[in-house]
Amino acid sequence: MHTHIYISLLTQSNSLSLTLRQIRRSSYHDVVRVSEIENALDIRGVQTYVINSARVLFLNERPQPKNSSHGAASSTPKTMSYFCETCCRTLLDPFRFCSLGCKVEGMRKNKEEEEERLRKERQQETHKGTHPPTHTSNSRRRKGIPHRAPFAS
């Protein structure tokens, strides 16, 4: 996942002068401090974590733990599970995405789905007037007018 390609999708302003102060490594994953990125990018809906007393978010999608299964019953039935909309990773809180990369991917998919929906709507509107009207009555009846035998007198 190349987060930097889609970074312009998430910028709150149209300025292209986006500089991150420092990308850190945490458990072999790239993270960035929320305080350094929240003014430059829209990070709403992305799960944040506290690592070494700093609130951070992951830049790229993280692999699933080997022993987890999406949708499995939890050990405590009262707890509610939340999942990343892109990679289905379990989240701790009611966020939509586990990382900035997943948010970018989710936004890209939503944009593509919306464009496809609009394209189909436009296509249906243009074809509405071009179809010949369908006949509701049967054009070839199976039976004609019933003929009775003449009365014998």
How would you classify the helix and strand content by structural class? alpha+beta
Instruction: Assign an overall shape.
Output: elongated
Instruction: Note the total helix count.
Output: 3
Round the Cα radius of gyration to an integer and report it: 29 Å
- Beta-strand percentage? 5-15%
Task: Give an account of the 3D structure.
This is PLATZ transcription factor family protein. Pfam families: PLATZ (PF04640). Residues 108-128 have a biased composition (Basic and acidic residues). It comes from Arabidopsis thaliana. The chain is of the alpha+beta class. It has a domain at 3-61 and 80-127. It has 3 helices and 6 strands. It has helices at residues 7-10, 34-37, 100-128; strands at residues 24-26, 29-33, 49-51, 54-58, 82-83, 90-91. The strands form 2 sheets. The chain has a 4-stranded antiparallel sheet.
Main attributes?
153 residues; four-stranded antiparallel beta sheet; 24% helix; PLATZ transcription factor family protein; PLATZ
Brief rundown of the structure:
This is PLATZ transcription factor family protein. By secondary structure, this protein is α+β, with helices and mostly antiparallel strands. Helices cover 24% and strands 13% of the residues.
